[in-house]
Amino acid sequence: MKGHPKLKIVSGGQTGADRAALDWAIKHGVPHGGWCPAGRRAEDGVISRRYKLRETKGSAYAARTAWNVRDSDGTVILSLAQGLSGGARVTRQLARKHGKPCLHLSQQRHGTKKAANLLCAFLQEHRIRTLNVAGPRASKEPKLGHFVTQVLDKAFLRLSRCWSQLI
User: Does the reported pTM lie above 0.85?
Assistant: First the structure.
């Protein structure tokens, strides 16, 4: 599956959901980017330069989260658990504050297939061209990356059949 020029994936580069989405985008030729803290800070050290991320002026995570929400057309938050906490919850609050569409998909609640279908519908309904992908870091949900990859694979396979519906 090759990327489509109408879509871009952004995230903050943190381990877990962010990094899985960026890796998925690179693998599939989907344009990617986003904001990360100054110094390319993440819980596992310095974020690799292979990710096309721009640095905020400060090292706090809050600015990059807010700027990724602000600069995207919508946000999908992926998690294993049903509830959100920490940065994932802040992301949802920021999306609401900025009036941006936001969808939380949980493996526990939705499973992979339903989550992929919901993501596909979300992208079409809101005509998303720049999608912010967020969720817990790897230390909170170590197996989240696999769920993120599966959901993106299934959603974009389905979307590839109907790209003309996106502007």
Answer: yes
